[in-house]
From TrEMBL:
PANTHER family: DOPAMINE BETA HYDROXYLASE RELATED, MOXD1 HOMOLOG 1. It comes from Dactylosporangium salmoneum. Gene3D superfamilies: 2.60.120.230, Copper type II, ascorbate-dependent monooxygenase, N-terminal domain. Keywords: Disulfide bond. Residues 61-86 are annotated as: Disordered. This is Copper type II ascorbate-dependent monooxygenase C-terminal domain-containing protein. The keyword Disulfide bond applies. It holds the Pfam family Cu2_monoox_C. Residues 314-416 form the Copper type II ascorbate-dependent monooxygenase C-terminal domain.
Length: 427
């Protein structure tokens, strides 16, 4: 299955994966950070080879950095926070502040511990602007796992408004993407990150009349799925109205997960069929069907084979330039790798994380950027460890299961992220 390069039949499937991403950055990004300023990632930023370390709620780490709003030494999941000042505006830039319309109290559906909720917000754009930076402000950091912002095209705005109006309460449930046709990921946040600044000439295009959907992943694992308080998060966008900008896009490289129960475990969800059905029960048919779709696409019709390591090859359909790469898994992740043209004389490794840490998911800039050509292949490979389920406090007490792709913190993912120049201006 190719990544979401353009209007291919696989684009809709790839777009459904976007809701599970954390933070995407690129060469030229400067990440303003609070606390622990001596970390290696800050040194990289100073060296103008930008990177950011992000943390996802739920996994303990003595090295986890505070939420961007927190002062030095405070807990990134301690609750309500306020952000430090943003960096000065650069030539042509302006700020646009957007907030959830009202406070929302999340409650995980179907006996789960995660809720993905979408909120419609309007930047009131009257001309094309480029998103050159963002600063997400989580009001209740204790329950905000991560947030993603989708651009909604003007022609799809009515569909978004109808989704909002037809759903009870604030916003709507949106496991997967925003649920609006043609949505495009343009910003995101996870604990440990503060303000993200792109290089002055890079940006995500925002046509006039565009709306935005704020998708917040609330994790209620600590409360067993019970409400954990309300939240009214917001974001400060950095926009540039100059049309002489280089558009960026993020392509996703997913792979299946076929992780059997550990030898010491047993239970009804150790059966693959039951485990896939359970994901569908908790997150709906689209998410529940992702694992089988990934197996079909990545293994070309061969049946799934249980094992700790899985991979998927993604053909490159058109030329592009890659500025940075990253990998995302959940709590059972051990290692992740992204390779270009594996098994050939020109093979090279773009990303190699042999000791994956869920609380320290660094973005890896490529200096110099890497050119992709039609016919190239990008491979993502992940290794997971079911034995971690009995070791991590966040997963103790959860039922043993055959692990497949799922949106919950206790489910798993294998996702490579590739940040590149857009295929054509305005896409």
């Amino acid at each position: 299955m190719p990544p979401n390069w353009g209007e291919t039949p696989e684009v809709r499937f790839a777009a459904r994966l976007q809701s599970s991403m954390l933070v995407v950055v690129y060469r030229g990004v400067v990440m303003a950070k609070a606390g622990q300023a001596g970390r290696a990632l800050v040194a990289l930023a100073i060296a103008l080879v930008a990177a950011v370390s992000v943390a996802a709620c739920g996994s303990p780490s003595n090295n986890a950095e505070p939420t961007g709003a927190a002062s030095g030494g405070s807990d990134p999941h301690a609750g309500h926070v306020s952000a430090p000042p943003a960096a000065p505006l650069r030539a042509g830039e302006r700020f646009q502040a957007l907030s959830m319309p009202a406070a929302y109290t999340p409650q995980a559906p179907n006996g789960g511990t995660d809720e993905y909720r979408c909120f419609l917000i309007d930047p009131k754009l009257t001309r094309t602007a480029y998103l050159t930076g963002s600063q997400f402000l989580p009001q209740n950091a204790a329950i905000v796992h991560h947030a993603i912002f989708f651009r909604i095209a003007p022609e799809a705005a009515d569909q978004a408004r109808k989704l909002d109006a037809d759903s009870p309460g604030e916003g709507w449930t949106c496991f997967g993407d925003s649920g609006v046709r043609g949505d495009a990921w343009v910003a995101s946040w996870a604990p440990g990150a503060n303000e993200t600044l792109l290089a002055p000439n890079l940006g995500y295009p925002m046509p006039p009349g565009s709306m935005m959907v704020m998708q917040v992943h609330y994790n209620l694992l600590a409360t067993g799925g019970r409400p954990g308080g309300s939240d009214q998060s917001s974001i400060r966008l950095r926009l540039n109205d100059d049309t002489a900008m280089t558009p960026l896009r993020t392509s996703l490289l997913p792979a299946p997960i076929e992780l059997p129960c550990a030898a010491s475990e047993s239970g009804p969800l150790c059966d693959r069929t039951a485990a896939v059905a359970d994901v569908g029960k908790r997150f709906g048919a689209d998410i529940g069907g992702m694992e089988d779709e990934l197996v079909e696409q990545c293994y070309k019709g061969s049946p799934p084979v249980a094992g700790v390591t899985q991979h998927c090859d993604h053909p490159v359909p058109q030329a592009a330039t890659v500025y940075a790469v990253a990998g995302h898994m959940h709590l059972l992740g051990r290692s992740i790798k992204i390779e270009l043209n594996p098994g050939t004389a020109g093979a090279r490794t773009l990303l190699d994380v042999p000791n994956y840490n869920f609380d320290d998911q660094a973005i890896h800039p490529l200096d110099p950027p890497v050119a992709l050509h039609p016919g190239d292949t990008l491979r993502v490979t992940c290794t997971h460890d079911a034995g971690l389920r009995g070791l991590l406090p966040q997963l103790k007490g959860t039922a043993p299961r055959y692990v497949v792709w799922g949106d919950g913190t206790s489910d798993e993912m294998c996702l490579g992220l590739v940040v590149m120049t857009a295929a054509s201006r305005g896409n």
